[in-house]
Design brief:
By secondary structure, this protein is α+β, with helices and mostly antiparallel strands. It has helices at 29-38, 74-89, 97-102, 106-115, 132-137, 164-174, 180-192, 258-269, 298-302, 323-338; strands at residues 2-8, 41-47, 62-65, 92-94, 126-129, 145-149, 158-161, 206-210, 217-224, 227-234, 248-249, 273-281, 284-291, 306-310, 313-317. It folds into three domains: 2-94, Rossmann fold; 126-210, ATP-grasp fold, A domain (Dna Ligase, domain 1); 212-324, ATP-grasp fold, B domain (D-amino Acid Aminotransferase, Chain A, domain 1, 2-Layer Sandwich). Strands 9, 10, 11, 12, 13, 14 and 15 form a seven-stranded antiparallel beta sheet that branches. Helix 1 crosses helix 10.
Length: 340
């Protein structure tokens, strides 16, 4: 029986799940144990803090892992150290470390988009920056842009700007980094040392994206293996954002081709499951954002139906799904298909 290591956080939790007891406790580990065993895998739970590279060797071992969205992302930074160490050791990480780096990190997410070979996802154009000074130097922005702080979910840190001046103003308000002692020290050095350049006061990284006009809704799609769960999300009144609006519906009336588009993105990134925010305008699909680890699962948990790819045709199944079972099947099917 194959072994698969499941790395949990300091609370003993794994993954992100909406309906949990206790609140925000992640996947049901007993269910994961059951479903992996049924698929002939022996799951071994291990805390990140127990991965001591002087003693633990997971070379050529299958490893799945959780992420974190703690304030300041301090614990997530630690998780990245451990997972990068395992990557260097030769563990078979699912997903690849780069998707952990892109989790709650829109700058690196856009770098992955730009490096992708899938041209269909490149109609969203992003400039990724980290200082106000760099933004001021950039030219040729269109009149309307979307400013997004690199970290944030459910439309937090997302702003529509209608001019370069407004873009700079929004950046000043939202990208300020306050370290009073260091700022006072820089003021002293500016007076004392000729030509001294102080550190920027605005160093929160961010992206600037092209704006898609007249959107009434977008689509949240969760792709697990061959199955897709889809949710229609309406834009809030007097707003341009659908994510986090709370106005949504499950409907089978979906844009033609959206399932194939979502499935191809999953295949292109070579992951077992992925969360996608997709817009449809003027007969064209736009991949707004994507995450391949630690994404919200509400769409799957609440969906009364899902679509499944069977012999290159999409069949609708009118039934609820078990998150842990769907997740495990996507992982095992991925291992068997890709043979990592």
């Amino acid at each position: 029986m194959n072994e698969i290591y499941i790395l949990t956080d300091y609370k003993g939790y794994f993954g992100s799940k909406q309906k949990t007891t206790p609140y925000k406790s992640g996947f049901d580990k007993n269910a994961l144990q059951k479903y992996f065993t049924e698929r002939k895998f022996n799951p071994i739970f291990l805390n990140f803090a127990d991965v001591d590279f002087k003693k633990v060797d997971l070379r050529n071992k299958y490893v799945i892992y959780t992420s974190a969205e703690d304030q300041g992302l301090h614990y997530k930074d630690y998780i990245e150290d451990i997972i990068l160490g395992l990557y260097l050791q030769g563990a078979k990480l699912i997903p690849h470390f780069k998707f952990l780096r892109a989790n709650n990190n829109k700058v690196f997410m856009e770098i992955l988009r730009d490096q992708s070979e899938m041209q269909e996802i490149k109609n969203i154009k992003s400039t990724y920056l980290s200082t106000l000074e760099d933004l001021k130097r950039k030219e040729n922005f269109p009149d309307k842009n979307v400013l997004k702080l690199s970290a944030g979910a459910m439309s937090s840190g997302v702003f529509l700007t209608k001019s370069k001046d407004e873009l700079i103003k929004k950046c000043k308000i939202n990208c300020r980094t306050r370290y009073i002692y260091k700022e006072l020290w820089d003021i002293k050095n500016t007076i004392k040392h000729r030509y001294f350049i102080p550190d920027s006061l605005y160093r929160k990284k961010f992206i600037v994206q092209n704006y898609i006009e007249n959107l009434q809704n977008d689509w949240k799609l969760l792709v697990y293996g061959e199955s897709i769960y889809i949710l229609k999300r309406m834009v809030r009144k007097n707003d341009f954002r659908a994510s986090g609006s709370g106005i949504f519906e499950f409907t089978k009336e979906i844009p033609k081709g959206i399932l194939e588009f979502a499935y191809q993105i999953k295949e292109n990134f070579n992951v077992p499951n992925i969360s996608l925010d997709i817009a449809y305008a003027d007969h064209e699909f736009y991949l707004i954002e994507f995450q391949a680890i630690y994404f919200g699962t509400k769409t799957l948990e609440n969906a009364p139906f899902y679509f499944k790819n069977e012999n290159s045709k999409w069949k609708v199944y009118d039934e609820k799904s078990d998150l842990e079972k769907v997740y495990v099947n996507s992982i095992v099917d991925f291992i068997e298909k890709v043979k990592i």
